[in-house]
Every structure is written in structure tokens, then in C-alpha cells.
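Note to self: keep these together.
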Amino acid sequence: MSCTEKVRDWIIENGLISHGDPVTAAVSGGPDSMAMLSILNNLSAGLGFALSAAYLDHRIRKGTQRERRIVERWCARLGIPLVTGETDVPALAKRRRIGLEEAAREARYGFLERFARPASGEHGSLVALGHNSDDQVETVLHHIIRGTGIRGIAGMPVRRGAFIRPVMCCTGEELKRHCREKGIGYAIDRSNSDIRFLRNRIRHRLLPALRRDFNPAVDDAVIRLAGNARDGLAALAKGIGNLVPFTDADGSVTLDAARVRDLSDYRLYLLVDSILRDRFGVYRDIGRAHFDAVAKLIRAGRSGKRTTLPHGIRVTLEHGSVRFEPPSDSTGPAFPPDNIILPGDGDFDLPGWNMTVSVKTLRRPGGPSARVSGMGASLAGVSFPVRVRPRRDGDRLIPFGMKGTKKLSDIMIDAKIPLRDRGAIPVFEDRRGIIWVPGLVTAERTRITAASRRVTAFFLSEKG
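Structure:
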């Protein structure tokens, strides 16, 4: 059975994607995510979902430009819209005083959660992660070595909220084989061979020894263990979600102490764990001592008592309510506006600007003109893919009706646009440079003339 067939069956079996769902594939340029992008593209028409992609440059090491180019090239070839972003993970790790791996994970999920569907399911996208079955085995062993409970033994969930793992039914070698067979280029992260990291020692030392000396099918055994643990966890957690109300406007979560005080220790642990994970995005650094402190606070019944958990989460008992509050300086990792690649015609989200853009190419326009209005433009000579990005220092173009180049910053000054507002205006460019800045300027080279054989119409609208 091919990887594509396995993934299709896996998606259907686990109910990961429904007809009409938008799906954003998190792509790093490595073999797993590149194979996932190809497989989801092959399945999108048959399963009836719309596919886009997202890439984040962590700025941890050299060579990321090559990874970005690989992702951009394949998305353009497949006609898949791509959103790119970048963040300085080493700086984030230093600022937050956390490890590089944890900072990278925090940044990555912070970036991807911008596309994720909220609990209401009304807006947003499913986010597909490229974890394979080898990653699951390594994760479970990693948890066991460090010390864990049933949730750690359960490994990575097939689905958590809007995040899905559609290729976790395939091994890493199967996904690489798919890339080779389809001629898909990919990049190799050399840090995956660095045995200073525990996960890499598990991959390159522990697992080969277990397969050789103890059980050749140890991977399958660990996968079964994780599945059994997930089934047990689901049974224990049944009904827990009904005890957690909606998140308050200020980001806090308030429980009725009387409803949760008599829960068993483990079900109370699951309740607190679900709040930290699902409402505050906290997955690590929470140990048994922290859960015991919350349980003691809830059962003590003394109003005004408070405990503080890692990551600055405050828990207070007051007037019969248990209140979980986010840290006062909770801003999360900062990201610049997105770089979004439009492969051709269609409707696309612009998350960094809370807008959507409709693109339609018309042939034989039939006459000379230049069509541009605040939220729309009709341009000639546009070559795809088109990139939507924030403005940059040094941006220049030849404005419509002029012969020489002019700085975009000077155009914005002339238009009396305040400095604080300039980053909120998207810049559209093709491979030859800027073509349109909405409401402000179009490039002279996009003028529609009698010789124009094709016109591309763009229309922006705010997301409702």
C-alpha cells in the first residue's frame, strides 16, 4: 500500500478532515512535511478539502533560505497558497530563559495557531503536522526516560483541537521513498544527528539497540502501548470537558469549586491539565507538585488563597470560584506580518492583515486603461507566483504615470500615512518587483494597454 493510500485510510478512520475543511500544512522543507504536502495535495480533490501551506523560519542555523526556496518552489509548482514567517528563536530562548528546543516549539505553535480553527469551529483552518510513526515511538520513549504518567505514555495525539497528524501512519523511510518516487526535493536538518540531544540519542543509539538485542518489532510494540494508553486516558477523561466553561474575555478560566472539589485526584489532574493545555497552551514544566498545589487550594475552601504555576499562570480561590489567570505580561512570541505566496487565481486569507484577497485573471481585456481603486486593482503583465508581504526599508517602484523610480516610504509620506500605520498596508509583488500597494500606488509596468493580452484583477476585503 502506498503512503497516499495509507494516509487516506488514516484520515477517514480517525475523522481528521471533513468535506469542505480548509487545511494548512505546516511545512519545514524536510522530507516528512514535503511528503505530507504532496500527499494532501493528491487527496484534496477526492476528500473535498482546500489546501494551503505555512512555513516558519526559526533563524536558528544557516541554510534556512534553501529550505524556504524548496518550500516556495513546490508550493508554486503544485498551485498551493503559502504563508511564510520568521522569528528569532535564539533571542526568544534567551529572553524567556528557556531551552532552544522549547523556544522553537513555542514559536512554531504560536505561528501555526494563527491559522487554527477556534473551539467554535466557525473560522480558521485545520493545521496538519508532519509527525510520522518514528516520531511517535521516540516521543513515548523520551517521556518514559524522563518520567511520565499515562498522558506521556499516550504520546502525541492524532488530533488536538485544530491540529492533526495525517502522516503519523507512515514511517520516516516511507515518506522519504514517496519524495524520491515523486521527484520531490527536501532539506536535511543536520542537527537531527547531534547526539547531544536526548531525542537523537534515542533515535540513533537506544532504538537500534532495542531492535537488535530485544525485539525487532519494538516500534510496533511502542505504538500499541501508546494507543492503549490513549484509549484509557479517553475513558478517564470522559465528561471532564463539561466542567470547563468558556474562556473569559480577559483570557482567564473560572471554575465552580463545588463542582470539582470531589473529583478523584487523577480526574482533577486531567481537568487542570486540560485547562493548561487547551486554554493556555502550556505543555511542559508542569509536575506533580504543581497539580497537588492546585488540588490543595481547591479542596482547602479558604477564599483568597493563591498559587502560581510555571509560565506565570496564577490560580486563585475566591468566593467559591477557582480562577486560572494568564501571566500579566502574556504577549507570546512576536511575529511580523506574513509573507504570503499566491500561486494563481483564487480566494486567499491574509492573516497578518485580517483580510482576504480574490484573484482572477481575465484574457483579452479589449482596450487600454488602468483600473485601480482603494481595495481593488486590475493589472497587466503580472507573473505568478505573487507575494504579499509587509513593506521593507528601501522598497522602490516606478509609480503609474511616472518614468523614474520612487521610494515607497516617500509615497507614503506624500499620502500622509502615519508611520505607525504603514506596516498595516500589504505590498503585492511578483518576481520583477512591486506591482500594487492597495489604496496607494500601482506600478507603471502593470498599465493596461491595447497590447495587453491578460489582466489580473485583485480585490481585498476585510475578514468578517
